[in-house]
Amino acid sequence: MNTKTLDRALLAVFAVFALNGLIFASWAARIPAAAQALDIGSAGVGLLLLFSAVGSVGALPLAGALAQRVGTANAVRTGGLLASAAGLVIAAGLSAGSIPLTAAGLLIFGSGIGLWDVAMNLEGTEVERGLRRTLMPKFHGAFSGGAFLGAMIGAGLSALNVSLPVHLIGIVVIAVVLVTLVPRAFLPDSVEMLHPHQTGAPKPSSFGAWKEGRTLLIGVVVLGAALTEGAANDWVAKATVDGLDASETAGAVMFGVFVAAMTATRWFGARLIDRLGRVRALRLCMGASLAGLILFVFAPVLWLAGIGVVLWGIGAALGFPMGMSAAGDDPAHAAGRVSVVSTLGYTAFFVGPPLLGFLGELWGLRNALLVVGAAMLMSIVFAPVAAERTDGELDAGRPAA
Questions:
Q1: Which terminus of the chain is more solvent-facing, meaning fewer CB atoms within 10 Å of its CB: N or C?
Q2: Residues 178 and 214 occupy one common structural domain
Q3: Is residue 52 a contact partner of residue 86, using CB atoms and an 8 Å limit?
Q4: pLDDT of residue 401
Q5: Is the residue at 200 inside a domain?
C-alpha cells in the first residue's frame, strides 16, 4: 500500500477520533443546562445518563459484527449519523421539557457513540499496522483534544446564553458533514477482516471472540486501565475538595492537571511503547498510576497530592489504547476482538463511578479510591497477554488454505 494512501488514512483517523470527542463533550459540558431545561436534580441527571450508558453497552458487542459486514468507514458513518440523529431527538426533548423524549435520545446517542468508537479503533489498528509504528495513543490523544475543544465551545455558548437545543443542532450539522466525508480517506477494508476464509483463516462468528481466553484477558487489562482513568475523571476534583479541605477551584485545577498529564503522555508515549514493547510499557505505566494513586490518597498537603495526580495521569494514558492495539493484532479477527475489549473497558467507565461513590459514603472518597489500586494490580499481572504478535505467530493459529 502506498505511503500517500496511508498518510491520508492517518489524518482521517485523527479527524474521526477528534470529532467523536468533540460531539461527546458538547453534550457532557452542558449537562447543567439540560438539568435546568428539564427541571431535574442530580438524581434525575444520573438516571438520564444511565440511558446513554445502557445504549453504549448494548451497542458495543454488536459493533464488531457491523464493521465486519459493512466495513469500518460505513460503520463509523452509521454510528456518527445515529449519534447525530439522537442529537436532534435530545434537542426536541429539551425544547419540549420532555424527560422521556430526552432519555430516548440519550439511549440512541449512546448506541451511536459505541458503534463509532469500535469502528474508529478498528481503523486505527489498520493504519497502525500499515505504517508499522505505534499510533493508537496519539489517536486517543486526538479524542481528548476534541473533547477539550467541545467543552470550550460549550462553555463559550453557555456564556453567550445560546440554548442547548440550538447548540446541539449546530453540532449535528457539523457532525453529519464530517462523518460522511472524512471516512472516504480510510484504507480499503482488508480481505482478512471482511472475508477471512479467503486467506485461510477460519471465518469468525460475530460473538466468537467472547470465548477466547487471550481476548478476555486483554479485556481485563483494559478494564483495569479504564477504571484507573474513569475514577480520576469523575472523582479527583471532589476527592481533593473533601479529603484535603481544598476549594472547588483547587479541585477543578487538580482535575485539569490529571487531564493534561494524560493527554501529553498519549501524544508522546508512542515512542515509549516502541522502545520497551507493550508489556513493559504497560507495567511501567500502571505502576506509575499505582504510585500516584497511593500518593494522592495519603498526601497530607495539596502540592504533594498534585504530584500524585501527575503520576496517575501519566500511568492512565496508555493502557486503553495499548489494549485496542493488542486486540486488533490479527486483522482476520480484529472486529470481534476489539468489540469485546471495548465492551469490557467501557463497562468499567460506567460501573466504576457509582461504585466508588457508594464506597466513598462509607470510607471517605480518598480512601475509597484505593479500590482502584486492585484494578491497577490486575492490569499489571495480566499485561503479558498484550504482547506484540508476529506474523508467524498469527499464521500459526490459522489452518492452511
A1: C
A2: no
A3: no
A4: 32
A5: no
In angstroms, the CA 320 to CA 143 distance is: 13
Task: Enumerate residues 6+ apart whose C-beta is below 8 A from 119.
Answer: 63, 66, 67, 72, 75, 76, 78, 79
Residue 137 domain-assigned (yes or no) = yes
Query: Is the same domain home to 40 and 118?
Result: yes
CA–CA distance, 366 with 244 (Å, rounded to integer): 9
Task: Report yes or no: 89 and 105 within 8 Å, Cβ to Cβ.
Answer: yes
CA 244 to chain centre: 29
* Alpha-helical segments (H) within 160-190: 164-181
Domain count, the chain: 2
C-alpha grid cell, residue 93: 426533548
Query: What is the greatest pairwise CA distance in the chain?
Result: 66
The answer to which of 47-51, 263-267, 389-393 has the lowest mean pLDDT is: 389-393
> With a threshold of 0.70, does the pTM exceed it?
yes
Return d(Cα 308, Cα 314) in angstroms, integer.
10
CA dihedral 329, 334, 340, 344 (to 10 degrees): 40
127 and 244, same domain (yes or no): no
For helices 319-327 and 136-159, the axis angle rounded to 10 degrees is 130
Structural domain ending residue among the three candidates 149, 183, 217: 183
Q: Supply the DSSP symbol for 187.
A: P
For residues 49 and 153, the answer to whether their CB atoms sit within 8 Å is no
What does the pLDDT look like over 222-231, one tens digit per residue? 999 988 888 8
Of 59-73, 274-288, 352-366, 377-391, minimum mean pLDDT range: 352-366
Q: Is residue 122 part of a domain?
A: yes
Which structural domain range is residue 267 located in?
Answer: 208-396
Same domain, 36 and 96: yes
What pLDDT score was predicted for residue 394?
Answer: 53
In this prediction, what percent of the chain has a pLDDT beyond 90? 42
**pLDDT tens digits, one per residue of 358-399:** 788 788 878 888 999 998 999 999 999 999 876 555 555 443
Cell numbers for 369, please give them. Answer: 479510591
pLDDT of 384 reads: 94
